[in-house]
Each structure stands twice: as structure tokens, then as C-alpha cells.
Amino acid sequence: MKIAAALALLALATPLSAAEAPAPVKIEQTEKHLADGAQLLDVRTQEEWDEGHIKGAKFVPIAKDGFLEGAKAALDPKKPVLVYCKSGGRSARAAKQLREAGFTVHDLAGGITAWKKAGKPVQK
Fold first, then answer.
1. β-pairing, 58-59 with 81-84?
2. Cβ distance 61 to 43 under 8 Å?
3. Predicted pLDDT at 100
4. Chain center to CA of 82
5. Would you say the pTM of this structure is higher than 0.85?
6. Is 123 contained in some domain?
7. Which CATH number goes with the domain that contains 35?
8. Host domain of residue 60
9. What is the pLDDT of residues 32-53, one digit of tens each?
10. Checking CA distances to 102, which of 2, 20, 28, 73 falls within 20 to 30 Å?
11. Does residue 7 register a pLDDT over 90?
């Protein structure tokens, strides 16, 4: 009986968690969001940024203190945000913080690694 109750609670909690963190968006979806006016946020390190970033991205490294304050200063809270890092770990953390601050956020699946693998341009 305890197991059944625990499973029922888990089933009820799962949709709420999924609503908080939508699945990362693929390259094609990212391009559509950008065409529709979404902001692009790179949360990698300065060194990674200098090696190449997606054109039009704003740079606010998540590893630095004050990430959320920096992101709030750099972004328009009324527009959706597409966030990326190298492969998805840091951008997922950044997306969570931004969502909790009231932003509409999408995480680029696979990060800039997937972007480059799809043959998309980067700039230095």
C-alpha cells in the first residue's frame, strides 16, 4: 500500500516538474525562436566565448558570482531567452535560475557543440 501511494504521488509530481523545465529545443526550433525575436544568451567561460559564439548572443558566464543579476541587466524580461553553453549542463542550470526569476527560457539542446555539428556559423 505504501508503494502504491508513493507511486501515485510521483505520478502527480512528474507533470509539474516537466512544466517547470521544458525539454531543450533542437537547432531548427532555435532558429525559429530567434526569427521570432528571442534573445540568445551564452553562459560559457570567457575563453570559450573568445573561441567562438553564436552571432547576436549576449555573454553572461554562469560560473561567475552575480550571474542572475548580470543576466537581468543584459536581457529584456518581456522577450523569450534561448540559453546555451558547450553541451547543455551549465545552460540547464542557467535556464532554471532564469525561469525562477520570471523569464521565458528555452535551452539549446546540445549547446554550441550541436550548433557547430549542424554546420551553423559562429563568430569570434
1. unpaired
2. yes
3. 96
4. 5
5. no
6. no
7. 3.40.250.10
8. 22-117
9. 988 999 999 999 999 999 999 9
10. 28
11. no
* Contacting residues for 110 by C-beta, under 8 A, at least 6 apart: 24, 87, 88, 117
What residues form DSSP beta bridges with 42?
Answer: 59, 84
Structure confidence by residue, pLDDT tens digits, 73-110: 999 999 999 999 999 899 999 999 999 999 999 999 99
**Helix H or strand E segment including 43:** none
- Residue in this structure with the C-alpha cell 552575480, named with its chain if needed: 66
- Counting the structural domains of the chain, the total is 1
Report the amino acid identity of residue 41: L
Rounded Cα distance between 39 and 100, Å, is 17
